[in-house]
Design a protein that fits this description.
- This protein has one helix spanning 37-40, and strands at 10-13, 32-36, 53-57.
- It is mostly beta strands and 74 residues long.
- It has one domain (3-64).
- The chain has a 3-stranded mixed sheet with strand order 1-2-3.
- The relative contact order is 0.19.
- The mean pLDDT is 78.
């Protein structure tokens, strides 16, 4: 319904650890999704530095990303 009206969907990926390796984030239907890499692959906040996060976007929003960026070629 939101997308049909021209809206975009934002997903909070802070708690995706349980789904790691079981899903593809792109299949969830969000236009923007952040992933807290510091919770998934390293120590949490306060354990030696600021947290790291990846921002994943749909093709529709990719033109608005800053450079440099990583891209997976199909």
């Amino acid at each position: 319904m939101v997308k049909d009206a021209g809206g975009v969907l934002y997903g909070d990926g802070a708690n995706l650890n349980a789904l790691l390796g079981r899903i593809k984030p792109g299949d969830l239907g969000f236009d923007i999704l952040h992933s807290n890499l510091h919770k998934t692959f390293t120590q949490p906040h306060g354990g030696g530095g600021p947290g790291a996060g990846a921002i994943m976007v749909s093709e529709k929003l990719s033109q608005y990303l800053p450079s440099p960026m990583s891209k997976i070629e199909k």
